[in-house]
Amino acid sequence: MAERSRGVRAAVVVLVGVAVLSVVGWPGEVVTVTAGPVAGPWSPPGRGTPSIDVLGDVPSGAELFGDVAVSVSRRGVAAVRVGGGGRWTYQRLWGDDLVDWVRVDDRRGAAVWRDGRVTLVDVPTGRVVWRTDLPAGPFAAAGRTLDGEWRSMWTLSVARPGMLVILHDGRLDVLDGRTGATRWTRPAASCGPVDEARALGDVVLTARRCPGYAGAALGAEDGEPRWTFADAGPYDARDLGAGRAVTVEDGGLVVRRTADWRVVWRLPRAGLRPNPSAGSLGVTADLVIADTASGIVAYRVADGGLAWRRPLERPAGTSQDVLTDGRVVYVAADERTVLALDARTGAVIDRRGFDDRIDLRSMRSDLAVVTVGAARDQVLA
């Protein structure tokens, strides 16, 4: 009887321990919320107005989730509300180094750690939604000897709809972004481990360094082969949604279907400025917006037809990046001036000068991040 009583007590202790961990986090994982919660509506003066307003500074390299700026370091993730009012930090005190952070959707991001731990975080609240552990890849032991270069053996991206694509030490795992469950995996094959992987819309591009091996596009949902490729062109493509992607080829624009990589339309003489890339384009559900030698030009995603053109003359060295949320388009008028255009017509809405050289970095919802000078990022609306 005493033996049975001790067994019952032990079971109770285990259950209580699991319940406590589910509330406060697993050993070594700490989420610290300070200065009040970051969730809730936020409408600072100037947001939603036609003019360009600077809403505040954020840490250099931070990414916006709504009005919350997220930055990462070797030990964890930190979030702060633009303009103040709330912040949180997420760390693993006894865990391994943070590999990186990847955006899953407009509200959630995933933190990936060197020991294979993956955690999905709800950014407005700092709450951990789920956590899972990845099996080691074939190069895991070798990666431990690379010091600071081991991060090059990890690649993170997100495929549609919400598939988390993680290449780690030669092994590819694709997780369901809602639950953390493994949807499919590609371990080492007879010809060698997975060497490259990147999500592109509803497919995952993969490659191995094997003689005669062509890269393959696999379905994001099931991992089944869709098409193959022999060069790195698809890796430079930009997802447009609706099963299409855009690439820059020989100075022109090409839109292809991600299902089979067939060309939808091609503009061989788009007039792009020197050294263009698909990453510098502004894209919406309907438009591809490019910085050209004669100005800013918007083409229809459906057929490549001209939607509008805004002539601009700018000095050499001006940022070529185009930022848009489908309502407004931000471009650099010169090295220190941001120009806002109407995304529907290309009409000039406003312009704003800065006290140092600018670099247009990213845009989420109706907020843009612009680097001013060497190490200062500002949020525009």
Instruction: Give a count of the beta strands, DSSP E runs of length 2 or more.
Output: 33
Radius of gyration: 23 Å
Q: What is the count of helical runs?
A: 2
Given the helix and strand composition, which structural class is it? mainly beta
Q: Could you tell me the strand content as a percent range?
A: over 45%
Structure description:
The structure is a single chain. The chain is globular. The chain is mainly β and 381 residues long. The strands form 8 sheets. Strands 1-6-5-4-3 form a 5-stranded antiparallel beta sheet, with no helix packed on it. Strands 2-33-32-31 form a 4-stranded antiparallel beta sheet, with no helix packed on it. A 4-stranded antiparallel beta sheet has the order 7-8-9-10, with no helix packed on it.
Task: Give descriptors for this structure.
381 residues; mainly beta; five-stranded antiparallel sheet; four-stranded antiparallel sheet; 2 helices; 7% helix
In summary, what is this structure?
The protein is built from 2 helices and 33 strands. The chain has 381 residues and is mainly beta.
Topology:
Blueprint: H1 2-24, E1 29-34, E2 54-58, E3 63-65, E4 68-72, E5 76-81, E6 87-92, E7 98-103, E8 108-113, E9 117-122, E10 127-133, H2 140-143, E11 154-159, E12 163-168, E13 171-176, E14 182-186, E15 196-200, E16 203-207, E17 215-219, E18 225-229, E19 238-241, E20 244-249, E21 252-257, E22 263-267, E23 282-283, E24 287-292, E25 295-300, E26 306-311, E27 323-324, E28 328-334, E29 337-342, E30 348-353, E31 358-364, E32 367-372, E33 376-380
Antiparallel strand pairs: 1-6, 2-33, 3-4, 4-5, 5-6, 7-8, 8-9, 9-10, 11-12, 12-13, 13-14, 15-16, 16-17, 17-18, 19-20, 20-21, 21-22, 23-24, 24-25, 25-26, 27-28, 28-29, 29-30, 31-32, 32-33
